[in-house]
Amino acid sequence: MIRVAVVGAAGRMGTSVVQALEEADDMTLSLAVDGRDGLEGITSDNTDVAVEFTVPQASLDNVLTLVGRGVDLVVGTTGWTDEGLDQVRQALEQAPREHQSVFIAPNFAISAVLADHFAAKAAEYFTSAEVIELHHPDKVDAPSGTAIHTAQAIGKARRQAGLGPMPDGTQGAADSRGQVIDGVHVHAVRLQGLNAHEEVLLGNSGEQLSIRADSFDRSSFMPGVLLAVRTIASGSHPGLTVGLDRFLDL
């Protein structure tokens, strides 16, 4: 049995993770920690993998603390910066256990991971690409980590294909054109009634390709969370891994 602790267990995602763990045949919940609790009870003696779903302001400290205690992690909190990822890599180099692992996912929904993969594949064949992400109004970051990851994948694919900047089509100020990430405009919608949705629009003269992923319920993220826990627990991916696509046969 894989012993799993959940940090942020009282949150929306944390509650779903606890339920998924209780229903999994090969896992057991070792500890459930919410935002008011400390991490003192989580150690490598009672936990094989900690799942961390909190807020960007707390996540880095949580990860560094648990890495220092020899605990492997699966992290679903978004809002990570390059500087934060570098700190995690440095912590893993000094970790008390050999081959420790931290996995960070911009998104755990298989549909979103595949949409991201398909968008990167298609990007080199289109003149223009834009990303629209739509979420519930309680989401703490905008744009979403998934949308940032998608834009970065599109930008990388375009650079590798030798494509130049995309035509912007605006005159003068362009304040309403969204955040530009790796040359890709990313638009964030926050609307009551939504859960988690992303659409990638790719265009050439006379044609358009739309790639869309919709998660209507948090249960859609649980297969990805459990896949990540099993993979990290197996020890097959030491160090820092970012993106669920690394665990899929793509």
UniProtKB/TrEMBL annotation:
Keywords assigned by UniProt, alphabetized: Amino-acid biosynthesis, Cytoplasm, Diaminopimelate biosynthesis, Lysine biosynthesis, NAD, NADP, Oxidoreductase
UniProt GO MF annotations: 4-hydroxy-tetrahydrodipicolinate reductase; NAD binding; NADP binding; oxidoreductase activity, acting on CH or CH2 groups, NAD or NADP as acceptor
Start and end residues of each Dihydrodipicolinate reductase N-terminal domain: 2-108
Record InterPro entries: DapB_C, DapB_N, DapB_N_CS, DHDPR_bac, NAD(P)-bd_dom_sf
EC class name: oxidoreductase
Annotated region (Disordered), positions in chain: 157-176
Keyword Oxidoreductase: yes
Coiled coil ranges: none
Sequence positions that bind NAD(+): 8-13, 40, 76-78, 105-108
Protein name: 4-hydroxy-tetrahydrodipicolinate reductase
Species annotation: Bifidobacterium [indicum] DSM 20214 = LMG 11587
GN (gene name): dapB
